[in-house]
Amino acid sequence: MFTHANLFPSRSQAYERTEQISVGGALPYGGPGAASAPSGDAVTVGAQLYVTKGCVSCHALEGRGGVVGPAIVSTDVETLRKKTRTGPGGMPPFAAAALTDDDLRAISAYLRSLAKPQGE
User: How far is 104 from 78, CA to CA, in rounded Å?
Assistant: First the structure.
């Protein structure tokens, strides 16, 4: 499997991840968590952002870790902020406008919810 993270042995220091763009009209989101909580719930929003902001492509479904990125279940917002702003290892940094503090709080809420036993 080839991704942006493993095609090259190291990334250019000039590379900064920017916001994703879409071509065409907006489509409703129907991915993980879309039907499990009311709209605006931090965990649901975080699940949506986890997919749409690209976290899932390296860290796999439900933050379990993949070939490219480590497991990130339970990651707190401060750690997410530090890692996404500095881009450790092969991970390029996100521009602050591409992944806001509100986005990070929601993604962290989602990742923390994955560590809780079902029913809590």
Answer: 9
Measured CA to CA, the distance from residue 55 to residue 63 in angstroms comes to 8
Residues near 39 by beta carbon (within 8 Å), at least 6 away in sequence: none
Question: CB neighbours of 113 closer than 8 A, spacing ≥ 6?
Answer: 43, 46
Quick: pLDDT tens for 57-87.
Answer: 889 989 998 888 899 999 999 999 999 999 8
Of the candidates 47, 58, 62, which has an alpha carbon nearest to the alpha carbon of residue 115?
Answer: 62
72 class by beta-carbon count within 10 Å (0-12 exposed, 13-18 middle, 19+ buried): buried
pLDDT in tens, 1-29: 444 544 555 656 666 666 666 677 766 66
pTM of the model: 0.67
Q: Which two tokens stand for residue 74?
A: 């339970």
Distance CA 75, CA 71 (A): 9
Contacts of 19 (CB under 8 A, 6+ apart): 95, 97, 98
